[in-house]
Amino acid sequence: MVLGIGCDIIEIARIKKSLEKENFLHRYFTNKEIKLINERGFCASATAAGNFCAKEAVAKAFGIGFGDIMPIDIEILRSDKNAPYVILHGKALLEFERLEALNIFLSISHSKEMAIAYVVIEN
Q1: 110 catalytically annotated
Q2: Is the per-residue pLDDT at 65 higher than 90?
């Protein structure tokens, strides 16, 4: 059964500008995500934007958005086949358990200017 859906879209240029700020990466992304972003080279901004969207989409799928759940509590990584997946920490993990959820499905896409993420949480 679907427990929640979430979608978010963001301008890649906005994230690219934020990446220039000293604390942005460490405030919103885990060390593993930062490594992933840095490994992406020319598409680092698109990867960061996609991950940021995915975090927001997960929070929306929980039905609460960011507030009690912080972006750093939601980690977005890639499988060996480059499929994005979610790892939850802290209050995000507690919310997942409270909902008795079993799965989080995530899709991320981007164009030259925009990144989008879509999430479905189910039990």
Answers
A1: yes
A2: no
